Amino acid sequence: MEMKSPQSRIIGAVDIGGTKIAAGVVNDDGEVLASEECATEQDRGFASAANQIDRMLRNCAARTSTTIRGIGIGCTGPVYPLTGEIGDVEFLKTWKGANLVEALEARFGVRAALENDADAAALGEAFWGAGRDKAQMLFVTVGTGVGAGVVLDGQLYRGVDGSHPEMGHQVIDSTGPRCYCGARGCWEVLARGPAMTEWMEAQATGDTEDPHLSAKRICEMAAAGDGLARRAVEREAHYLGLGLANLVTIFCPEAIVLGGSVMLSANLFLDGIRQEIRQNCGLVPYERTEIRLAALGQHAALIGAARTWHHRFIEMGESSVIGS
Ligand SMILES: [Zn+2]
Q1: What is the distance in A from the centroid of ligand 1 to the CA of 88?
Q2: How far is the CA of 133 from the centre of ligand 1 (A)?
C-alpha cells in the first residue's frame, strides 16, 4: 500500500447548493477525509449560514485531527469568483452581495477561493478525475439543472471580469418553454432532470399519474421496458445530445466529462447522445472527442470545491498568504 505523505495539505471544502450546504476536509490526493452537511435554509440569512459553515469545517478538522490550510468553495451561481461575492442567486436571495471569501478568510486566517459550482466540479474532474491529462476538457453536469465548466491546458476558462459562461443556457429551441434565465428553450429547461418528469406528466392520462415520478424513476421504468419512459429517455438523449454537439462544434475538446444525478443512468443516454454528435458535428473531428463519465463519485462537489483552492493558489500562482 502506498503511504500518504504526512505533509498532505488539508483544504477545507464548502459546496453550496439550493437545498443543502456540505463542508469537509480534503487532502492533496483529492480524498474527502470527513464531511458534514446541513439544509441551506436561505431565510435564516448569510451570517447564520457562515456560522454553520465555520462549525462544520472545524468539526471535520477536529474529527480527523487535521489543520485547515486553505478553503475552497463551490457555489451555485451567479457568483463573482475574483472578489468572493455572492450574486443574485435564485436560491440564495438573502445572501446577495455578501462576501463568503472574506468571511471565511477572517475566521480561519487562511486564503479562500470561490468558484461557480460547475467550474469547481470541472476543476475537480480535470485534475483528480476523468479529465486528467486532457488538454481541452469540458465538464457537464445534468441534474436539477444543466451546468458546465471548461478547463483548457490546465486553466479554468473565464469570461470578462471572471464571469462564468452559462453553457447550460444556450438556446436549443427558440420556441421551447420559458426558463428563469429569460430565454425560451435553453438547454437547461429542455434537458434537466425535471424536464423528463414534466414531459412524462404531460403525456400521462389522469388516472395513471405517479406522485413519485422523477428522472431516476423514469430511467428505472425505461430500463424495465416501459414504452412511454423509453420515449422520455429518447427525448432527453436528443436534447442532451444537441447541446453537447454544439459544445463539440465550438470547442473540439479532447474530452467531455458527464456528471450529475441524471448521468447515473448514462448508459440509457449515451447511444442517443453519440448519434446527435455524429449528425451535427460534420466540420470538426468529433470522433476525437471522448465522452466520459465523471469519476469522483458522491463527493465530487466537495472535491471540486477543494480543487478551486489548488487552482487559484498553486496553478494560477496567486499568493496563498493573507494580506499580501
Ligand atoms: Zn435558461
Answers
A1: 15
A2: 31
Question: How far apart are alpha carbons 21 and 36 in whole angstroms?
Answer: 9
Separation of 171 CA from ligand 1 center, angstroms? 8
pLDDT digits (tens, 9 = 90+) for 203-225: 877 666 677 899 999 999 999 99
Give dist(CA 294, CA 7) in Å, integer. 28
Name the burial class of residue 98, with classes exposed (0-12), middle (13-18) and buried (19+) by CB atoms within 10 angstroms of its CB.
middle
Distance 224 CA to ligand 1 centre (A): 32
Gap from CA of 314 to ligand 1 centroid (Å)? 34
CA distance 3 to 315: 25
Q: Is the pLDDT confidence value at 3 over 70?
A: no
Distance 68 CA to ligand 1 centre (A): 37
8 Å CB contact between 214 and 259: no
What would the pLDDT profile of 221-274 be if each residue is shown by its tens digit? 999 999 999 999 999 999 999 999 999 999 999 999 999 999 999 999 999 999
Sequential DSSP letters for 98-119: -BHHHHHHHHHSS-EEEEEHHH
pLDDT at 26 over 80: yes
CA of 160 to the centre of ligand 1 (A): 20
CA of 263 to the centre of ligand 1 (A): 20
Q: How is residue 217 written as a grid cell?
A: 424513476
Say how many Å lie between the CA of residue 228 and the centre of ligand 1: 26
Pairing assessment for the beta strands 85-86 and 79-80 based on DSSP bridges:
antiparallel
User: How many angstroms does the Cα of residue 188 sit away from the middle of ligand 1?
Assistant: 6
CA–CA distance from 47 to each of 96, 98, 100, 232 (Å)? 12, 9, 10, 43
